[in-house]
Sequence to fold (259 residues):
Amino acid sequence: MNITMMDRVAVVTGGSKGIGLAVARRFAGSGARVAILARGAQDLKAARELLGKDGLEVRDYVCDVSKADDISRTHDSIVADFGKVDVLVNNAGTSRAMAFETITDDVWQQDLDLKLFAAIRFSRLVWPGMRQRKWGRIINVLNTYAKAPAAASAPTSVSRAAGMALTKVMASEGGEHNILVNAMLVGLIVSDQWVKRHAAKAPDTDFDAFTRDLASGVPLGRMGTAEEFANLACFLASEQGSYITGTAINVDGGRSPVV
Fold:
């Protein structure tokens, strides 16, 4: 199957590392013009240079998507530079998990701003253009706790569950305008977060052995790669994924107890 995103404009939040960077790479390699967003200018520069070595060109924008003003300003800059937004991947956010009684109001609000309201605000800005052109793709990157939350998995599990409900609402409203909205639920995917956790908790252990131990409950017997995640994102964002909307797909090697 020839999956192409030729001439599409794609925005990837949290696009400087890990899953976001892999998605940006896959999109650009499939012909899309790509904008990557992150809070750190140096990380964005490094990502742009890394992709440039492979002959892939992206534009980068410093943006804290937990702030409404940052989102609005960055959206306006992207439209000024590219003319439109066809694809939005709401990917920003790191896992935050702790015991319920320890979570303060500030922590709840920070998590909701970064993971839920960022998706709401950015999607709301790109929606009118997608509706006018009768073509749009929005992918909300969540995690499998959105479907099967465990003890001490909040606030992330709650924010992500709300993101799954948001996905269904937008898909139901966007269908008549050919705006397809789906969620991809992350399981154990090798990313910068796990590299940092390895360095902090088991620096004397081989990283491959570290990830194998983590993946002991995964039917496929290993952690996934960011590239594997990006392959599905590219399919959903392309013309070839034109009859898939309103669904939440586990990308977890079968680890989640629910489908």
In short: The longest helix spans residues 105-133. The chain has two domains: 9-189+225-251, 192-223. The chain has a mean pLDDT of 96.
